[in-house]
Specification:
about 270 residues, 2 domains, Beta-lactamase Inhibitory Protein, Chain:B, domain 1, six-stranded mixed beta sheet
């Protein structure tokens, strides 16, 4: 009887450790509350793709160190094309926790994107068929799946740790449009913006970020070419002339005006032959 009682106890324990949705599968180390929090914090999270994410029916494998199976990714890309390219904004739309992996659905998964009814076309008489929906879905992002695989079972993880694992693939930082614009510029221009100065090759928006609005502007046409000087500073003191041809800075000149002195815009550079 004792043996039977022990068997019943072990069975009861096993039932408690395995739920209908697999929460307590082998190797699983989350408490129910930790599971809920991880899913909640990752679901609907937006990120910017740092590399091409192939579209794939099967979840693309990622190691706990953030490395990818390049062969599997290349095969998926060749078969289905990209789900997202570098710079594209994507969203985690579903999170599943399995025995040894965290599966992340991106942009609705493989079936994300256009719906079946958006592909219907209707033709009347001799008129060519036209889509029922007239909206342009060509730019709509399509989806894929990623699976972070833990061979020994999923350890207890926080959302920030999962984001760190995926940091080679997705950038989850919340950045303003200005920050994204600056990061898209060449390194010398980024450095000049940080140093609050203008350099040749800058566009007007970059100069505004670096130095702010000018104290005054002067336009001049020479040999049929229009130049515009943005003038920073007033006498006495340092005065900086930033000369534009079109939207690009072609010259930067600094001078010092003594008390009571006046300054005039420098002669624009000679047009290129």
């Amino acid at each position: 009887m004792r043996g039977i009682g022990l068997g019943v106890s072990l069975t009861a324990i096993a039932v408690l450790l395995v739920s209908a949705d697999g929460v307590w599968a082998k190797g699983y180390r989350f408490s129910p509350q930790e599971r809920i929090e991880l899913i909640r914090e990752l679901t609907a999270l937006y990120g910017t793709a740092k590399t091409t994410l192939p579209r794939s029916k099967k979840a693309l494998p990622v190691t706990p160190e953030g490395q990818i199976d390049q062969g599997a990714w290349d095969d998926a890309h060749q078969q289905w094309g990209p789900a997202a390219r570098p710079g594209d904004l994507v969203q985690i739309t579903k999170v599943e926790l399995e025995d040894d992996r965290i599966v992340l659905e991106i942009n609705g998964g493989f079936k994300g994107g256009r719906k079946w009814y958006e592909r219907i076309q209707v033709g009347v008489g001799t008129y060519p068929p036209v889509p029922v929906s007239q909206r342009d879905y060509s730019a709509r992002p399509v989806g894929t799946k990623l699976a972070v695989i833990f061979p020994q079972g999923i350890p207890a993880l926080k959302a920030e740790q999962v984001k760190e694992i995926l940091s080679n693939l997705l950038d989850f930082r919340q950045r303003s449009a200005t920050e994204q614009y600056v990061e898209s510029l060449p390194e010398p221009i980024q450095a000049a913006i940080k140093e609050k100065r203008a350099i040749e090759g800058m566009e007007r928006d970059a100069v505004l970020l670096a130095m702010g609005k000018p104290d005054r502007k002067v336009r001049e046409v020479r040999d049929g070419v229009e130049y515009e000087d943005w003038i920073y500073g007033t006498p006495p003191g340092k005065v900086t002339f930033v000369t534009f041809r079109g939207n690009k800075v072609v010259a930067v000149k600094e001078t010092y005006a003594a008390p009571g002195g006046t300054v005039a815009p420098p002669q624009p550079p000679q047009p290129e032959p």
